[in-house]
Amino acid sequence: MARLADGDRSAFSHVFDTLWPLLVGFARRLSRDAADAEDAAQQALLRVFEHAHRYDPGQDVAAWALAITANECHAVRRKRRGVPLDTGGEMEAPGASPEAVAIERDLLAEATDVLGTLRSQDAETLAAAWRGSRPPIPPTAFRKRVQRATERLRAAWRSRHGTS
Amino acid sequence: MERPEAVVTLAGRARRAYEMARLRSALVRTWPVPVAAWLAIRLGATPSHVMALAAPLAIAAIVMMWKGGSIGRAVGPGFAAGIAPLVLPGLMMDCATACSANCATWCSTSCVVGGIVAGSLVGLRAARVRGGGVAFGLSAAAVAAATGAMGCFVGGAVGVLGMLAGLAIGAVPVFTLVPRRS
Questions:
Q1: Domain extents for chain B?
Q2: I want to staple B92 with a disulfide (CB 3.0 to 4.6 A). Which of A6, A116, B110, B145 is the partner?
């Protein structure tokens, strides 16, 4: 991403091929609805590339891209809520009160924010676990990594909010 | 492995978004050109001469910043270095007029001095660029020369040539002598 920010177009394919599966997997995890997830991930990817020239090399790419994806998922949900007779998505389920929807939205935003404070390896491990893919390491090692990353995520959440 | 059609289309859209964003950013960051042109005209340069330089300078700066890399990074320092030869001749002309001195001599001298200052700044920045800095230095020098020339038109062709000579005199020794970053 740093090379792309500097104008090195040869890095484009690599960044695209790395980010697209990550974002679409994360969006599926957040949206549940496959079509919404695809829309949100596409918008997020376009926004990532739109802002690529301003990318700060000290920033964690995965956390930054996932935060954009979470925002796009919210935007897609909000758009869906504006459509009459819409029943798609967990947050818009019949019977869900506006307060419950607002609380879940805030929780999701906070969770994304806390995710951004993790080390890049932890954020990537959690993202890989959420999208159901595994890096080329033994399953036991991956499970342990996910466990450790989840513990760090919980600790980060606790230190910020005082509760898990 | 071949990408699915939808992903290829998305990659194309992402690439267009990236290029358009770079272009928009380059357009915004070219603001020093109109400011420098206005300043040069205010300090006594002929508007038609200034415009003849400002238009190609703006286009070149946009292309360089859109392209990126070391030549893109050189544009900002080039503008900054060009301030000295841009303003010195106009200010010196005012001083010369006030003290009834020989305007042409004052102006030519200030162009050379401005060029040396600009060249030294460019050389210093280029020497600090990791992994060489020749492309950076040449690009920054070109931008500084075009920016400075808008001001040195006050002294005519002699002023512009003096500024270019000063730029080379300032840049080359500094670039050669300052210790490099590995």
A1: 31-177
A2: B110
